[in-house]
Design brief:
With 201 residues, the protein is an alpha+beta fold. Helices cover 42% and strands 22% of the residues. Strands 1-2-3-5-4 form a five-stranded mixed β-barrel. It has a two-stranded antiparallel sheet with strand order 6-7. Helix 2 crosses helix 3 (82-91), helix 7 (153-163) crosses helix 8 and helix 7 (153-163) crosses helix 9.
Length: 201
């Protein structure tokens, strides 16, 4: 799994940036706060999360581990996907969001893009462990997991195929033809995927 990317800022768009490293440009979707801190041609380190769908591989990025951690927690809440989570990070600072969770501030949460009252209430219930009695939990990055944790074999395999130049449609097609079991490693999956690709010619 791609934990982070270090490289040169090549392009800054309305909701994404291209970061070039070793001749490869990565399109990374980012919140407006982080985009506003980026400068063309500067060197950056972007923590990344790869969202895998049947028809797309989308890379989301963050300039801090705190923002990355909050994003990964947000997308575990029912009804909140990566786009909504990035919208929340665009509209709110991490500390302000955590304070709203701690204070059970439904009014604050419902002002965030894509968040209605029911979703806000689910957030308060499912994210209540993000803050202790004195604020963010201290044990690791404000209670968040750092992005260096183990990736799934499936995600690693899909990233490896993408790095070899296969398109998203080709990758989705071949992965759908492989029977994936819990004991398979990324190396096992990659070998099978390449075998299928070779047979397809």
């Amino acid at each position: 799994m791609i934990g982070f990317i270090k490289g040169r800022v090549d392009t800054i768009g309305s909701n994404y940036a291209f970061v070039e490293t070793q001749g490869v440009g990565y399109r990374i979707y980012m919140n407006t706060s982080d985009l506003g801190r980026m400068v063309l041609d500067d060197k950056v380190k972007v923590y990344t999360y790869l969202a895998v769908r049947e028809d797309a591989l989308t890379l989301y990025g963050f300039l801090s581990q705190e923002a990355y951690g909050l994003f990964t927690k947000l997308i575990t809440v029912s009804g909140i996907g990566p786009k909504v989570a990035q919208g929340i990070l665009s509209a709110s600072k991490v500390d302000d969001f955590l304070l709203a969770i701690k204070n059970r501030d439904v009014k604050f949460l419902t002002k965030l893009p894509g968040i209605g009252k029911k979703t806000a209430e689910r957030m308060l219930l499912e994210l209540k462990d993000l803050t202790g009695p004195e604020g963010p939990l201290p044990e690791s990055n404000g209670g968040f997991l750092a992005p260096e944790g183990p990736a799934s074999a499936l995600t690693e395999t899909m990233e490896a195929l993408a790095s070899l130049g296969y398109t998203q449609n080709e990758i989705s097609g071949v992965m759908n033809r492989i029977k994936v079991t819990a004991d398979m490693s990324a190396e096992d999956l990659l070998k099978k995927a390449l075998q299928v690709m070779a047979r397809r010619g």
